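User: Please fill in residues for this 369-position structure.
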């Protein structure tokens, strides 16, 4: 059987877990992960959780790590033989992770993350496991953490949103993906501060993740772009400066005749966020509809916020792609870092809420479609 759970492996960082984690892992399963870092670097492995049913010599369920370059092995580990420290520093750029189970009754399984010696993390939580709760982070005003790839799918909750910050009991690197400071498929260094908590943390849907509405906490997390600026105490807004749109265009627009026989034009110019009344809508039945924005000059674009129209209609866009252009004639699809396919952004699920999606890396263009 397949004992592999949530897994995301990249050359510089990653996260892996047993199947069903944090629920009980299945009987009679096996999984093998091969971690490979760039030549000249070494792997640092952080044990987030090793909860395998105890047995003599860890014979029934076990975790074993093999370092073929050094000819050494670590483990086997289980509940009665856990790793001596939560962070394992190897001298190798290649490590094989083996997980096996036989019949058992209990155990959450395992959660493991890794980074390379190029990105060891500073002030990580706890001691290298950067998907853990932020309440375990150092009690520093401002600190930096290296988040491995793959924390988006880790079990655990986040409370808050990019503009107001996050409850300090949130899963730290999962919150960083929600805030749009890192891409889940890449991971990366994040800079954040812990400040006085607030009464209510409002929920939001951003970058494919839902946060929860949370109550008062003593501390909150604020993410920052760049590293250790003098203004590190300032919160990161949902996006930086809101870009002014010089002109809107669309593939089509809806000419509505309402119940009273009055005309209502759902034209492209009504697409700006915050426009009172109805918004833009494509002609009903049209395929491959698009909305185009001319920013007037080339700008750096770090994200987008979308919202539906609740003016008598429950209209919203559930998913979309983005293209960009410097001249309005030659268009390039947005794919993200290293991706081979056009990125599909997860949009709205109702006509009322706002949804934020980050562009990592940012787009440099005049026209967005």
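Assistant: Residues filled in for all 369 positions:
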């Amino acid at each position: 059987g397949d004992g592999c759970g949530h897994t995301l492996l990249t050359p510089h960082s990653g996260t892996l877990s047993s199947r069903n984690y944090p629920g009980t892992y299945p009987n009679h399963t096996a999984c093998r992960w091969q971690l490979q870092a760039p030549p000249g670097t070494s792997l640092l492995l952080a044990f987030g959780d090793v909860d395998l049913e105890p047995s003599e010599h860890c014979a029934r369920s076990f975790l074993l790590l093999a370092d073929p370059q050094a000819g050494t092995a670590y483990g086997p580990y289980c509940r009665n033989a856990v790793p001596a420290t939560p962070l394992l520093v190897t001298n190798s750029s290649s490590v094989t992770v083996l997980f096996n189970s036989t019949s058992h009754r209990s155990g959450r399984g395992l959660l493991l993350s890794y980074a390379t010696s190029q990105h060891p993390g500073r002030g990580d939580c706890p001691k290298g496991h950067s998907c853990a709760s932020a309440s375990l982070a150092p009690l520093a005003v401002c600190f930096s953490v290296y988040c491995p790839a793959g924390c988006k799918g880790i079990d655990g909750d986040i409370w808050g949103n990019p503009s107001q910050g996050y409850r300090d009991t949130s899963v730290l690197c999962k919150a960083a993906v929600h805030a749009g400071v890192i891409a889940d498929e890449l991971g990366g260094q994040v800079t954040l501060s812990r400040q006085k908590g607030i009464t209510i943390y409002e929920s939001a849907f951003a970058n494919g993740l839902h946060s929860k509405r949370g109550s008062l906490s003593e501390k909150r997390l604020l993410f920052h772009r760049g590293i250790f600026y003098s203004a590190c105490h300032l919160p990161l807004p949902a996006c930086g400066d809101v870009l002014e749109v010089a002109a809107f265009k669309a593939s089509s627009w809806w000419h509505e005749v309402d119940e009273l026989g009055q005309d209502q034009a759902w034209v492209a110019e009504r697409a700006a966020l915050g426009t009172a009344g109805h918004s833009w809508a494509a002609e009903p039945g049209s395929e491959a509809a698009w909305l185009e924005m001319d920013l007037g000059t080339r700008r750096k674009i770090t994200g987008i916020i979308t919202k539906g129209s609740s003016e008598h209609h429950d209209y919203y866009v559930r998913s979309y792609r983005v293209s960009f252009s410097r001249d309005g004639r030659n268009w390039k699809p947005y794919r993200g870092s290293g991706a081979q396919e056009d990125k599909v952004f997860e949009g709205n699920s109702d006509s009322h809420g706002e949804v934020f999606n980050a562009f990592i890396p940012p787009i440099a263009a005049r026209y967005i479609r």
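For context: The chain has three domains: 4-116, 142-224, 247-368.
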